[in-house]
Here is the input.
Amino acid sequence: MPNSERSSGRRFDHDYGVTTHAVLFLTDLEPEAVGDAGAHATHYEAVPVAEFHALLAHVPPDIVARSTFVDIGAGMGRAMLLASEYPFRQVCGVEVSPSLYEVAKENLASARPLRRRCNDLRPVRADARIWTYPPGDLVVFLFNPFDAEALRAALASIRGRRRAGETWILYHTPVERAELDAYDDIVVVAEERFGLVARAAAPGG
Ligand SMILES: C[S@@+](CC[C@H](N)C(=O)[O-])C[C@H]1O[C@@H](n2cnc3c(N)ncnc32)[C@H](O)[C@@H]1O
Here is the structure.
């Protein structure tokens, strides 16, 4: 991790009064509780603050205003806190690790609401591969949470949700981007050095 990212991460924690800055391996934390998800997971690391905002800047404001944000692999909740600075309808975060989920809950409850524009924050302890994703328009965020097989499963769950709307995918460190290419209707609309933004229109839309 470059020094500038390390210091902006520490500054984030200081400003918000939370703990998100860490690098942890899921299988070292609680192998039994995460089960088979551990074999597909990468590691915990919080998203660099400026890069999160840079990816979200590609999503038009009217989409933000009518969408639910979902952090796939919410870790300690940093991306959820950053997303709460935008006027989403709701901000969810799905995390498979019980201990990271507990930290995220504490962070969300105790964080200083510095620039808060969405107050409906919902951390969820679940496996993002098989979670029931919310209906309607979604902006999903992935900071390289897992391997291709797990991403394929999560995409199938997202696309199979009830009353699916438009889906925007913010993918930081998109090492498994070939999984997106498998769908004709998922179009990459922007690329940054560190990630991409893709869009899938609503079914029939
Ligand atoms: C690189 S961290 C990203 C943390 C957070 N999104 C952020 O940007 O600050 C990836 C997270 O994905 C979680 N994860 C991995 N596999 C998962 C799964 N199947 N379901 C839910 N969370 C998962 C890990 O526990 C880890 O917290």
In short: The CA atoms of residues 183 and 200 lie 9 Å apart. Residues 26, 37, 41-42, 44-47, 71, 73-75, 78-79, 94-97, 100, 127-129, 143-146, 150 surround S-adenosylmethionine (CB under 6 Å). The chain has a mean pLDDT of 94. The two ends are 41 Å apart (CA to CA).
